[in-house]
Amino acid sequence: MELRVTSLPGDGIGPEVTSQAICVLEEVASGFGHDLELDEKEIGGVALEKFGNPLPDATIQACLASEAVLLGAVGSQAFDHNPRELRPEAGLLRLRQELGAFANLRPAVFYPSLAGCSPLREEIVSGTDILIVRELLGGLYFGQPRSIEGSPGERQAINTMRYCEPEIERIARVAFQLARSRRRRVLSVDKSNVLECSRLWREVVTGIGRDFSDVHLSHMYVDSAAMSLVLKPAEFDVILTENMFGDILSDEVGGVVGSLGLLASASIGGPVGIYEPVHGSAPDIAGQGVANPLGAILSVALMLRHTFHLPKEAECVEAGVISTLMGGFRTRDLARRGERTVSTEEMGAQIAEFVRLAANTKSRAAS
Q: 221-246 pLDDT, tens per residue?
């Protein structure tokens, strides 16, 4: 089949990790007999520098003309004093809106070979396999009105958390449907003892849960969930939550399994999916060749599974990551004292080689 992908490397370490993800995707296409059509465009700080716009029209059109978007990272301190609409992050938020990507999937899996990377004891973190389903187009990040008003010394800031029933219904259905392919458990996280938005959230999610009688639904306040994630992470399956809570909890889970650099994400629900590592642009290490590309590479696996419906190809990429970690390959964020580290490019090349050999083996077996 034809795989039409728009690449948005973005800022900081984005180009470094995206290039390795593309190398792996190219091996998948070649080894499994697919035609890969890649188009690269600008977003974030690089787009601001070149066009004065964090999301140029040409980028939007290229994304809409493709089937999937592979995004690196956005964010640059050079634009911290710009108006909100002229910051790199504004381009990312608008991209999600333009592509209708309302459901953000963030898997977090514990790899036994990285037991020493987690701050938790191995017997606590072992078996952790969590999928956070985060609503992506509502809540505080998009709610209106929002402003900073008043004279210096007397200013006040306003942000609005806003959700409507259809927004909650559609993300809840995504979570329940995904739970059916896992352990059939959904935990809905809210703050319904304080927030009206959360009270509506809990009511609507409970109603949708009745349509999925084969999935067990439970509820938890976000503060309690944050504590439980570090006390007993292996007990969680699918976590369903709103935009800001999901943003925070998924970063916490990255720490639980050993590194934020391990986490991939898929933003789906619209005509074109967006696939990106969870980590940011990390300008402090950009250009040094030490960034962890696994989040970007695992985002390719999510792309293969959710947009192109190619589970065997996705499993091959995931197996490549596991094999590489078991082989002792570590970027700086994953290495313990005294362990040898490899560069971003070396880590990516190892996984790409695994995919190439695995695809060739399957090809020979089929013939």
A: 999 999 999 999 999 999 999 999 99
